[in-house]
Amino acid sequence: MRLTDEIAWINAEPWNPVSTGGLAFSLALAGFIFYCAFFAGGWVPLADDANLAVHEAGHPLTGIFSSRLAVYGGTAAQLAFPAICMFEFWRRRWTLSYGLCGIWLGQSLLNVARYVADARAMQLSLVGFSAHPLHDWNVILSRWGLLQQDINIANGLRIVAWLTIACAIWFLFRRWSRDYTGGRPAS
To answer: Which of 31, 56, 82, 180 is deepest in the core (most CB within 10 A)?
Structure first.
């Protein structure tokens, strides 16, 4: 079966329904992320703990291929993990799981934006195996000659992150609306 045939087959499959409780949980999660982002210093408990573990695992995995690329591996892994989960849930048509992973991807991108914004100031507490762990984004933006643009880049990432979260919520709401109204437009 060709990839295009498989995608067409997957797209023909119906999505699992979204319960009202699932939609409410998604909205509460997005609200909690909003609260943490604007009123609690930006760290989202549990989600950012998981993001940190995946981020740190990404460095040595990428470092297998190139020590120079290892600095990119943390952020790449942190964003790839929820994106891969989203793809798998899209493939299986698990609506709520797909939407929650979309929210997670946006939240993870908010975490990356926070890290990018700290590239010059280097005030965030870092973890690592040395006494003075490298600040990934200080290294990356310095290599690219963009260190002075750290705040602008971070703000752009924040916009993309919030749009990602909003799209995930919109998707879940649309699926819930279709399921709740039996496919008819909500009145």
So the answer is: 82
Distance CA 108, CA 100 (A): 12
Encode pLDDT of 101-136 as tens digits. Answer: 999 999 999 999 999 999 999 998 877 655 556 789
Least confident segment among 54-68, 71-85, 95-109, 121-135: 121-135
Residues sharing a CB contact under 8 Å with residue 72, sequence separation 6 or more, in sequence order: 62, 136, 140
Q: In what helix (H) or strand (E) does residue 139 lie, and over which residues does it extend? A: helix 136-143
Q: Cα(first)–Cα(last) distance of the chain, in Å?
A: 42
CA separation for the pair 59, 70 (Å, rounded): 5
Average pLDDT score, the chain: 90
Count of Cβ atoms closer than 10 Å to residue 123 Cβ? 7
Burial 50-70 (b: 16+ CB within 10 A, else e): ebeebbbebbeebeeeeeeeb
3-state secondary structure of 46: coil
